[in-house]
Amino acid sequence: MTLRHILPVFFGTLLINACGHSLPELPGFDAAAWRRDPYACTDQRRNQLPALQQHRELLYGTRADAIGALFGRPDEEELSEQTEKTYFYYLEPGSQCAPSHQRSTANKLILRFGPLGTVTEILYERPAIMQPPADATPSAK
Fold first, then answer.
1. Could you tell me the residue range of the domain that residue 35 belongs to?
2. Which of 18, 36, 95, 134 is positioned for an S-S bond with 104, CB 3.0–4.6 A?
3. Whole-angstrom distance, CA of residue 6 vs CA of residue 3
C-alpha cells in the first residue's frame, strides 16, 4: 500500500474516534455505588443524584460504551428505527425490584443517544426528585 492509500484510512479512523468523548469524570459521583444498586432496589442511587445533576452537562456527547462503563448496564433499553437508542436507569425502588423486573413508574434517569452513538439528551422521568428534601434547612447568607 502506498501513502496515498493509507492516509484516507488513517484520517477516517481518526474522525470516527473523535466523535464523542471518553469516560467523563463527575466530581462527587460514586460510580461504583451506582453500579452496585441495579434497578435502584437498595435506594443507593438517590445519594448520587446531586453530583450527577451538578455535572450532567459533562455527559453530553459521551459514547454509549463510556456511559455503560460509568453507570453499568442500563436497567432498561429501547432501540428506535433510526439507530437511536435510549438507556433507562431507575433512581428509586419500585415494582421493578420484583423478581420479574417489570417496567415501573418509579423515577428514572433517561439517556438518549443519537445516530452517532453519543448522548444527545438527559432527562428525568419526574424531575421533582431533584428538589432538596423538605427537612433540609436553607443555608444562611
1. 22-130
2. 95
3. 5
Look at the alpha carbons of 90, 92, 94, 97 in this order and tell me if their dihedral is positive or negative.
positive
Burial class (CB in 10 A: 0-12, 13-18, 19+), 67: buried
Could you tell me if 96 and 107 are in contact, meaning their C-beta atoms sit under 8 angstroms apart?
A: no
CATH, residue 49: 3.30.1450.10
DSSP 48: G
Place of cell 456527547: 61
- The residues pairing with 77 across neighbouring beta strands, listed in sequence order, are 87
Query: Rounded to 10 degrees, what is the CA torsion of 71, 43, 50, 128?
Result: 110
Q: What is the DSSP code (8-state) at residue 100? A: T
| Residues 75 and 93: beta-carbon distance below 8 Å | no
- The vertex-88 CA angle with 109 and 128, nearest 5°, equals 25
- Reading the chain (141 residues) residue by residue, the pLDDT tens digits are 555 655 444 444 434 444 556 678 899 999 999 999 999 999 999 999 999 999 999 999 999 999 999 999 999 999 987 889 999 999 999 999 999 888 999 999 999 999 999 999 999 998 754 444 444 444 444
